[in-house]
Structures are given as C-alpha cells and as structure tokens.
Amino acid sequence: MKNQGEIASILGRLGFIKLADDSRISFDYEQDSDLKPFDLVSFIIKEVPGSNTNSMYFKAFDISLLERPEITPQSKLLRLSKVAKTHNISLGKITTLLQSKGIKIESNPNAKLDEEQYATFLEALTDFDDELDFRTTFKRKYSRGTIVELKIDAIIAPSQVITYFTDDFQGRLSLLDIDWSFPESQKSFASLEVGQNIRCCILSIDFESKQVILGQKQLKKQLSGTGQWARIERGDQFKCELVEELKDFYLVRASSNEFGLLSKGFTESTQGLMKLKVQSKSDENDLLYFTPASLDVIVQEEGILELPNEFSFVEPDLQDFYSFKKSIIGRHATNSQIEFIRDAFEQFPNIFAKDFELSQTIYLAFELKHQSWEFQFKQNAIAYFYPDEELSKELEVNLLKKLETESYWVRFNKRKKKETGNEEGIFFSFFNEDINIYGEVLQSNGGRDTKFAIRDFTCGQAVSRSTDAKKRNSKNGAFLFKAPLKVTSPFGVLPSGDSQSQILKAILLKNDCLHIVKALKQEAGEILRQEGRTLAIIDKFLEYQESLIESSKAPAIFVNKFEQTHSPEGGISIVLEKTIADSLELEDETQVIIRVKHPKEDEIVKYSDGTLVLQGDKCKLSFRNDVRTENLKNGFYIEKKISKRQIQIQREIIQDFLQKKINIDHIESLLVEPEKIKSPVISKNELISKDLIATEKDQPNNNQIKAVRKAIGNHNIFLIQGPPGTGKTTVISEIIQQLVAKNKKILVAGQNHVAVDNVLAKISKLSHLNLLRVGNIEKIDEELSRFHIDSRVDDYKAVFGDFLKNQLSLLKMLLDYHERNFSEDKITQEYNKRVNEYCAEYSALNASLKHRHFILRQGLKSLTINELKSIVIKYEEWVINTHAEVETLLRPIIYNSLDVVFSTCIGIKTDSVFRNTDFKFDVVIIDEAGKANIAETLVAIELGKTVILVGDQMQLPPYMDNSLIDENSPGSFPKSEYGYEFTQEEILHALKTSFFEFLIKRIETGGFPKDNMEMLNFQHRMHPHIGEFVSKSFYGGNVQMGARTHLNKLSLPAPFDNEVIFFDTSNCPNPFEQTDGYSVKNNTEAEAIAELILPALFDGQVSSEEIAIIAPYKSQVANIQKYIKESQTCRYLNIDVSTLDSFQGKEYDIIIFGFTRSSDHRKAPMINGRKKFSKVGFLDDARRLNVAFSRAKKKLILVGNATTLVDRRSHYDIIFNYTELFQRLVDLSKDEKVGSFLKIADYYDFRNPFDRFSEKFRIGNPLKAVFHSVGVRDNIQYGVFFIVEGCRCLLPVSMIPANRRSELFSLAVGAEMQLLLFSKDIKAKRITLCISAANLNMSDIKQFKVNLWNEYANELKENAIISCKVTKQESFGFFLEMTNGITGLLPNQYAKNKGLKLGETIEVVIEQINNLKKQISFKLR
Q1: I want to staple 1416 with a disulfide (CB 3.0 to 4.6 A). Which of 260, 307, 867, 1384 is the partner?
Q2: What Å distances lie between residue 793 and 587, 790, 913, 1406, CA to CA?
Q3: What does the alpha-carbon distance between residue 328 and residue 970 come to, in Å, rounded to a whole number?
C-alpha cells in the first residue's frame, strides 16, 4: 500500500516529503524532477544503507503526483485575474485604484476581492475614466509641438524657468531646452526676467505634478543643421577667444560665432585671439573640437591627443582610408572591397560620418489617390499636427513645409519587390521621433530619371525615442540626413535632369560602404569567436543560467522557529538558525521572498520581500514591508529572489564585443593580433610610498618596484601576479597615486565587495584623493560606506552651501566694484584673489567649484549695474529656497571631481552614470582578477582606455557550482541544448578560468608579451617555515621570504611551540567523514578543534581575534560552529569559522585548517569487480590549498587523517601530485625544527561528556557542581542547571526545599555547591541532581531507592560480609544503610538484645536478595 504526503522542500538533488505526523522522509529529486514544493504525492518507503557507514535509513521511491481535493468557497469572491480580464485592465492598475480608496491588496492574479471591495473598485474605476477623459481632451488641445506664449512666474537659478499655463497647470522650461548650444542657453537664461512673455513649444505634459514641459530650442534651427555648419570641415582654421575655463578644456568662441572646445594639454597661453583649427564636430552639442593651428600632425598612437568619445565625429577606424586599411576590419577586406572603399573616400572624405551632407535637394513625392496622401497625410497627419483646425489647402502646404524643416535619420535597403517577387527594388525610410516616411525609388529612362515615391506616412509614433535607439539605428545602416529636402504633394513639380539620380547614386554609395563595413565587422567578430571560443562558451552558459531561472522556481525552505530582534534600519527583523542560510546556499546578503499559508484558503501566498544576511552562527531576516509576526507563528516559507540582471549585463558585453558594437582595441588585438600589444615603458617617476622607497634601496631585485613602474607606463594591458603576502595592495596604492598625479581617472574593480573594500581601506587614508564607492551601500564595509555617493552628497552639502553663499558674496562684490567704477583688470585681480581664498576650504571639490566661480564671472561681464542688482536679488531668493535642489545640483559636481571610483566588476554597470553614458576611465585596475570570470572582467574593461589586472592564478578561481557542469548529470550545461557542442575540457577551461589566467597561459604560447607581466616575488606575511612550503609547493620556489618574516613568531608552550602543527586523527575511534545529504562533515575533527586545540590556545593567552578556522565544506563549517557553541571553554568567544572562498585577501596569526575528508579504504565498495576508492574532493585543488595555508602568519595548525591524505588512492595525481604534496606537509610537521606531529587520540578522550561522566560517577555520589543558569519555560522556573565535569545537570525545583529556592535561583554564574547524583537517563543522556536524600519528598525518595538498586544490585552477592550503618529502628527490626546508599532490614530475630545503637557501624552478612521487590535482608556475622 502506498503512503501519501506533501513535498516539503527541495535542496539541490535531495527532496523531502512531509508526512501526516509532520515527520519527513527524503527522496532523490533528480529522478523525479517534475515535482515541486506543496505537491501532493503517493510513494512507497524502502530501507537503504547509509553512506560510508553500516547504518540503514528509510527513503521514498515510486513517487506519483496526486490531485488535491477542490475547496468549496465559503463566500462569493472574485480573483483579480478575472476582474482584470472583465474590465481589460492590468493587475497593477487594479491595486493602484483600490489603494486610492484605502484598500491594500497584493498584485497577484490569485488574490481575491469580496463584494464590498469589488464595489469600491468599480467606483474608483469610474473616477479613473473621468480623469482619463480630461487628460485626453487636454492633450488634444495642448499636443506636442503646439506653440504658446506664456508669462514667466519665477526663475529658479541655475536651471529652471516657471511660467503660468492654466489655473491648474504651470509651465516649466529647463536651461537645457532654451538653445541647442549650452553656452547660448546660459546667456539667454541670464537675460530672462519675471513677468516677461516668452514663446515656447510644448514638449510633454506631466499630469501627476500638473506641469507642462516646454522648450524654446525646438523653435530654432539647430546650428548643425545649417549650411554654415555643413561647410565646416576638418582642418578649417578659425580665430577664437576664450569664453570659459573648464576642468580639462577651454570653451572658446570662433569669430563666426560657433562654440568649441580646446584641450588644456595643447596650450598654456589663452590671452587674446587664438588661431585654432577644427579636429572634429559634435552635431548633438553644436560644438567644434579644436587643436592649435600650429599643430600640423595629430598622431594618436604616440599619445599626443586622445579625443573624448562624446566628441568623436567618425569611428577611429573609418576616419580616412589609411585608418580603415590598417584597422582589424580593413585587414579582413578583399581587394575589391578595399578598392571600393578607396573610391568612396576619394568622392566623399566623410563617407562614414554619421550624417550625410549634399548641396543638392532631394524631392520626396506623394502620389495621387495613394493612401499615404489621401488618408495618412490629409487626415491623420493634419489632425495630429493641427488638431483644432479644419482641413484646407493652406494646411496641406504648411504641413509639407514643416516636413521639409525636420531633421531625419535615413535608411536605404535593396530587396525584392512583393508584387513581382523577383525584381529587386530600392526602398527608403526617413524618420525621427514623430515622423516616418517610407517609400520606393522609381527609375526610368535607363536610370536617368529617378523619383522618390512616398508609399507610407505615419506620425505620432516613436520611431526612435532615445540616443541609444539612434545609435542602434546607426549601426544598422541608418544615418543622419543633412541634405536640403523638399516634400511635394501629388501635384508638385519635380526637378528635371539627373539631379535625383546623382543623389541616389551618392546615397547608395554610402549605403554600400556601410554594408561592407558591417559585413567586415561581423567577419572580424567571427574570428574573435574562433580565437576567443571561451567567450562563446561563457555566453552560452549564461544563456543556460537564464533558462534555469525562467523555467524553475527557487527551492523554498520552511521555517517554524524564530526570534524577533531589533532592526537598526527600523521595521521588523527576526533571527533564524544558520541552517536556513546553509539550505539556501547563502554566501552574502541575499534578497528573498517570504510566503505563508493563506488563513482561509489552502494555498501559499506571498507575504513580503526581505533581506537575509549571515550574523555569526545565526542569520537575520529583515522585512521590506510592514509585517506582523503573529502571521508567521504557524511557520512560513523562504525562497531566494533570483535576478537575471547580472547575467544580462555580462551577456550584453560579450555580444557587443563579439559583434564589434563596443571597441576594446587592446583585447581585440590580444585575441586576433597579439603582436600589436605594446610593451610598457618603465616609468622613472619618484616613488611616493616610504615602504617602496626603502624596498628599492634595500632589495633591488624586488619586483614590486618594477611592477609599479611598468604599470604607470602601460599602453594597453598589464598583469601583476601577486602571490600571498607579496604586498599587492601596497603596489596598487602606489600605482593609483602615481596615475592620479598625472590627472588620470581610475576605476578600481574587483570580483567581490571584500576585494574592492580591501584596496579602498588603504587608499582612503590618502585624504587628498577624491574617492567614490559604487554599489549597494548595505554590502559595503560599514567603515567605508562614507564613500558611497549618498554619503558623499551628505558630506559635501555643507561645502556646497558655503559655495552658494560665496557665489552670492562674489555677486555683491562685483556689483560693488562696478558701482565704484573699478577697472576690469582690478576687478579680475580682486575676484581671483577672493576665489582662491574660498577654494582653500572646498577640500576635494576645489577644482570643480573654482571652475563654477569663474563661469559666474564670465557670465556677468556684459551685464549692466541694474541687471547685476536684479541678479543679486534673485540669487538671494534662490539660495534661501534651494534646499530641495541641493542634492540634484551636487551629484554631477561630485562625479566630475572624482579621482578614483571603486566597484565590483558587475556593480559598476548598476550606476546610471556609468551605465547610460559613454564615460571612459583612463585606467581600469581589477584586483583579485584571478577570481573574476572572463565575462565579469570584460564588463569593467569596457570602461577603460588601458587596463591593469592584479591577481594570482594559483589562488581561488572563479566560483562555479560544479553540479551545473557535471557531464554525467542529465540537466547540466554539457547535456543541455546550450552546451552540447562543446567538449568537457573546453567547458571547464572557459568557466573555471579567469581572464587573468587566460592571459598568463598565452604567455607560454607566445600569445601575450612576457614584458607585460610581473610577478611580485617577496612575501612579507608568513613565517619562513610556512612561507617556504607555500613557495616551493605552488610557485616553484620563486617567492622569496621578506627580510622581517622571521619575526612573525608566536611563543606558545608545546605542542604549539613550532609553526606547523599536525593533529592526526587516524588513531581516533571514528576518524572518518559523514554526509548530511548534500555535503560532508567530520565530527572527530570538529570536536578536536573545539575541545582540545582552542582551549589549549586560550590557555596560552591567545586572543580569539588572532585565530581563524577554515574548512572546505559548508556543512563542516556549521558543524565546527555547533561544537564551539556547545564547548564550555569557547562558547562565548567570537571565532571566525568559514569556507575557503571567503578568506582570500585575509590573514590571521593562527590558521586552523580541518581537512574534513577521511575515508576507510579497507571498506571501499566493489563496482564492476573493482574497488572504488573515495577521493578527497575539494582537497585536490592546489589553488584552494594555497589559499588555506597562506592565510597563516605565525602558526598553521592542521587537523586531519594523515593516513588518508598520504594514500595515493585518495587523489587524482594526473595534473598535480597531491599525494606528494600531503606527504611533504606531514614530513614538514614531523621536522622538530619546524613543526609538531601529534596522534590526537593520545591527548584527548573522544567519548562524549555524558559517557565520561557516567563512567566516573554513580547514583548517590556527592558531586562538586558549578552553577550555570536557571531553567525557565513559559515564564515558570522549573529548576537550576549546574555543570559537573563538563556535563549539564538539572536540579529540579521539586527537589529544592521551598525555603531554599530563592537562594538557589539567585546564585552567581560559577558558584560552587555540593550536590548528590539522583539519576542518569542513559537514553536521553540526561543527569538529575538533588541536594540530599533527606530533602526529598516521599515519591522522590522511592524513586531514588529504585535508582540506587538499578545502579548497584548486580554487584550484590548473598552471604557476602559488608559494613553497614544503623539508620532506623522499627518494632520488627533495624534498617541498615550500605556504603553505596542501599538500605536493608536486620530482623529482630538477629538483632534482639544485641544493644545496637543508631549511627553505629556494624559488620553483617547478606542473607537474601529479592530483585523483584528490590529488597535485601541481613543477619549478624
């Protein structure tokens, strides 16, 4: 007969079924992978053998899914999904409408509304429809593009103008929407006054804030759209004057009124007119980029000039034919493609510009009786642009003219016509944010007559609503059209001659060039894919992980025990057992979902979101929402909230890189043409660090110095290998200081927060640097959170407040000097002097705020005294009311002032500034690069012009869940549709190899220049006895010992008097490992650490802060923590116990490493006629062992089964000889000069404390007990706990006289007391004490006698002669007490007339023993 139960949880490959009595039974999840939590199932139970033991346990098999019985609703309820379908409205809108009426309900399709709630929803829906009608009417009246004249109500410096619009709405005009040119915007803004009427164009309507967003620049023609701008070419010369000094550039104005930028690196003198020439144009900003006219040749390769991305006019590889030919894509072009591109450059030097300029006019013609004219233009378009006017010929003409003034992106395509299916046609599309004109090119007369016929016309649709979209279109063959445009009605006149054919020829030439380059980029991308096959595997694996997230629900863990605790952030937090975190495989702070059983329905519903974080041997759950803990008292479920964002960021970078949508030249060259990687120039800069200055003098062969100097002179990519303790953080700190001194912007990234914070902690001591920490502030070291952008804003608010006051002071000073007719030179002199005084107090914002002071001066030069007075008044008002805007104004100033940004590799892309802009750092430094996979590394590299990778391929590799890449697992990556085409060797290489290791291995094959890598070769952390073992074992002896490492010594008594101590468990009763279903643990090692090693260290006055314990498995970590918590010596101490993965980058005086793995090869099972020996798993990883051993500064204490470790059957010795490594380690510990080797069972009794106690003490024995605590249950005191010989014993309240209870309940911890052993419960391992037999009540006395009899009866022999004490006289005889406490009767027939006295000791003979009645009788000897 089958049993029934409910799936309780699924943990990896192991699932659990909950039975009717709340007990649980396990099953193999991979065999029944279609099951999920809460499913009702039937199954049979079988007994199976346990792992590595002779024990048996029960397990579920033949599992079948059962249907749940339908639950009849008790009242009429409507599901949200049905309400949404009925009213054609989203779930979110339903919850929002109900919330507006005071009803809160979860946006869940299964949530339900009662009749009253549904009626409230209908009422809210009616109100919403009324509001929707109003908005529709308002938008029709004030549609986008409507021109209005409005009066200024207020001017909020430095960037906002507020106008009257209607009684309920106000208009808002931003500084950025006044003019296409920002300098002109500033000038116009300064001239505006309250009460002035201004003409604006409506851009959008914000109904929530009741604001109409306005623009003025849309009424003007953009300079970059004029013929004047079009005629400006690269190399044209202008006379320019200085307008403003920016941080890295001078803003200049040309004599013909164009604005431009000149890099400060080109000139020191800016007096008078400067003769400059155009280097490039930025259409989006109406800005020219200038260089001095005297600079004849710009050679970017030599580092003279590097143009910022935002001012790049043409891709660097497509600037001219020479650039194209030498580029990666050019080298893959065929001869015919090269000739075609050469001809194109000769005809149009800017053929690859993102815009297309012609002097001839292109005509786009509507056709008579075609829908594009009759319906789409005459009805839809006119109604859209002129909603309140009647259709007329005049409107038609006006709209045609409007279409001609618009700016368009253009795309031309050749494809087969739908009508014929064979004939090839040419089709075009002119589009912008509001308009899309689609058509076909009609040719006749042998191609001499050309007509651009409009076939489709739409407006009001967002064809390309953002800069990002335009960039995508540009990459897909679209370009900005800059030729004159004429749009004609079906009756319009088209030009005669071949002008339209010439335009088409030019457009098709550009179009063909773009298609050739696109094809070449794809071909280069394919080569990158072949050369960098690793990237393709990582991309497929990330796609596989996405599919896992989409197709499977995270396992839910049931929780029924918790304690409420204080939450410093406010709200509710609860404390849970650490096993919950282990079950969820929690590594760091994790976002979770909490679900509970609905109180009225038999279903599990979402209750809240939360954050789960480890805290010592517990974990804390903080709720995001307001919750009531009484709703959790019956238990709840926790599941991980899984986000795909980090995966998506990595995939986007890989795809963009392989498709050449982003340009990382140094990586492309590395993969395709490694010979292009330049060797670094060794810098001669003076060192800053005193330690490094001393090192250079005392240790000329120390590679720290060479690494620093090469990193400063790096042209592209440079590697620093930092073995343990070699001072890589010191090297990074020096590199950062040197580069900042050269005005370089730096990103320091790492694979995890700990690595990033380690560097930041050291750099933060340099107060002159402006630093920023990017990322979730809750994951940043608390002491370093002050560098987060939110904290930086708070820090600088006071400085910014002083700046605003100083701006006002400068305004008043200028007004005063002008009223007193000071000369311009005198004003400038005094102004500069005052500014310098102010800037001395601005700390890290000095440069940015100083720059803004000078902008103020420049903007006020042309104003009259009355205008200055008006500005002063307005500015005073603005400063008073600016508190709400301070943060908005301050953030960009902080970002512009930064020297160094710190972030994780992925985290940098979570910051909107670095995600949404083309910001490039001068240098990207990635620390712990050996732990970052290739995709993570590329995310950070993409943001840098040059890269420095700091890591060690001999330490921890990128983390990988091995179950996902197990080729024997049915659902793993190698067996999936995503990974089947790759070999297992390729997969392991790609997913468990860092980019750092990838490059190191290319050195061996000549794929990466050896000069671009330095290994730090002196370690300063470990005592030489530890350090030399690490150096020889993992670095071929190439890491030398620092001059002072011999001082890393800790004097302790034996056996801890040497540096390497090995506690061998092989002679213990049970040294072998145990499994807990999904991991490995070892009780013998855990007990040895908690009860022998730690107490001995603490006896030697070692502090717990000096010790860390490392175990290779999470289960063993939890096991050691459990033993420590139960230990009387260690339980109250905070000792760091963790797995290897969290220790890289840390160091401790003493490291205790528990090997955990220990197998009895004598009992190896027979499989296919051969013995299958257990291997040591994680221990066969040289990188992990390297990290474990190298954390120790002074003592390395090892705990494990030496017999297993040195047995060749325990290891895979193919790649690395682990057997030899462990043999050398054991031999090292046996060297009396270096270490100690101890057989642990010779020093410690591994029986549990209860067994030791039971053997030593017997019922009735007096005991020396130490007070521990008072036992309380449900606020009632039930007894007192004492410690005797390490055992916890209870003195029940029933055995304490009433007059002594107050005394015992108030004992101090550690107080001693003489008590009696009342009972020992062998099964429950429970010990009960009493004060004395005389204090017991009748029932307890009776039980005590039974306990004594059970303890000693089998030792009693009839006719034995013993001594007894006379304790009581009755009419029938005397009661005698034996020395063991058992009493018996001496009848009167033997005692009469013998003169026996109470308390007297006499010798008697045991006459009879009655075991049934537990009685004994004596006779006199």
Answers
A1: 1384
A2: 31, 5, 15, 92
A3: 42
